[in-house]
Amino acid sequence: MSDWLHNLPVPLMALAIFAFTYLLALAIFAAVTMLATGERAKSFRAISPGMLPVLGIIFGLFVAFTAAQVWSDNDRASATVSREASALRAVVLLSTGLPAEQQGRLRDLIRDYVEQAARVEWPMMARQEASLKAAPAALAEALQLVLSMTPQGPGQQTAQREIIAALGSALDARRQRIIISQAEVNSVKWWCLYLQAMCELLVIAAVHCDNRLHRDCDGAVSQPEWPPRYC
After folding, report:
1. DSSP letters for 158-177
2. Which of 53, 115, 132, 145 sits between 20 and 30 A of 17, alpha carbons compared?
3. CA distances from 66 to 80, 106, 124, 179, 190 (A)
């Protein structure tokens, strides 16, 4: 269910969430209205409307805390992906200082790594199935290629050193993005949010269950009175 909802376009996702919310509110209000008869109606009327602002503030705090964690994870993920892309770009640019054969091989390995990450790792991260047990073969081979080369002159020595540092940064960024992909909002927070929302809807329904318009004996629409007058 969660994967189905997350894979929807944003407009359809918003529509599904609002539809579920309002259907739930309608069901709760209908249930409370059916129960608000006789002596139970007097009990419901005893609930103070002053509870509504307090419950609303608590619900807002739950939403804010949950959203803050999601926004923080999103910012960390964006920064990590940018750092990984910058490191790989640096490797490609620095490879111009290597011999032609090694330069071509290094660029091919970087291209293979990017394609593997886009086709395999990102879908696995979306399902929280990505693992850190095995290093990416393309980056590991690229690192071994650079370490095994014998630099000719100070220029190649500098390029080799910087490429090794950039590959290390890319590996670290990959590790960070996989860790972030496995982060999620604690289920306790979700259940607290759901329960608070249910309590808010129940209190709203109980407070307003006797405020519906009804028809008098002569057919005129008016506000209900208490105790009710029967024809």
Report:
1. HHHHHHHHHHHHHHHHHHHH
2. 53
3. 21, 43, 24, 19, 8
